[in-house]
Amino acid sequence: MEEKKNTYNYHLDKTVLLLFGITILVFSSLFIYKFYSQEECTLVQFKSESKDYRAESFIRFTDYTVGAESWEWQFGDSTAVQTERNPYHTFSKPGKYDVRLTVNGSCEIIKTIQIKEKIFVLDSTKLPVFTAPKIVTVGDKVTVIDSTKDANTWEWRFGETASVNSYERKAEYTYKESGLKTISLVVNGDLKHIGKQKIKVLPKPEKKERIEKIISSAPLDEDIKYKPELSIVKNTDTIVEEKKKKVPHITEANFAQKLVDISDEKITLEALKPYMCGSLDIPIIVNKKKENLLVFCQKISGKNITVKKLKIIRDEESKCITNILVSVNLGWF
């Protein structure tokens, strides 16, 4: 019996073959184009340069990418994108910023930079302008007037409390305590430019009657180890001649005040000469210690003293002061 053979005819339409070939050609071309046009992104590099990397200071950014043709700089502070190769940029506030550089539209690199606080530079032209006395006494009224241009508000502080003492252009204040104080003025709320001036407040002088009362109630020479001795530095003829002259009289209270004035540098030692027949080289007992008047006055000059007791010894004939007994408050005694 003869077997029957099945014959299969495979037929492909020419249009299908043509379309298939075109598709392969297109995809091959795209693959080859992308392969040869791909950028090497790992080589994107840039650096930044600045003197101190502070707010509002200029920073230069420089790109070193080989083959770069376009640039997009984003500085992380919401400012506009810059497209030049080596731009300059300033950051308005301190902080950390991520700087992103995109090269040729696809390759990018990100670097973080730290921006420090801006250094404050005092502008002396913005300081308040006013004058104040250098020395006052406790209880005296101090008056100050501001002459700052375009000033609208004022805050005066006179150094005795932390609170504001006056909000007016012309301010008045009475000090209650002695010492070195600072008058400060803030104009238009500008706390960075505060005007300051030093003022020395002297203690209120004691009444003369109080000194006289102390002198009369207790003898000053009690328990004093050294008795005052007359120190003669001139020849006898000169002393006799000066004794003939009329010596002005001064009370013990007034003499005590002159010692205080010498310590405050209001008068000089020469102011005492008329009461001593012209000789300042006389003994003085200070707090029970023997001193020389000339040396003593040099020591107290420029210092604050308080005379508690004072007694004057005069020559019976000429009335010149020959010896002094005094009790004072002084840090170095």
Automatic annotation (TrEMBL):
Pfam families, A to Z: PKD_4 (PF18911)
List membrane-spanning regions: 16-36
Supply the SMART domains for this chain: PKD
* Entry-linked InterPro entries: Ig-like_fold (IPR013783), PKD/Chitinase_dom (IPR022409), PKD_dom (IPR000601), PKD_dom_sf (IPR035986)
Domain PKD, by residue range, is 70-106, 146-188
Recorded hits in SUPFAM superfamilies, A to Z, give:
PKD domain
This chain belongs to the protein called PKD domain-containing protein
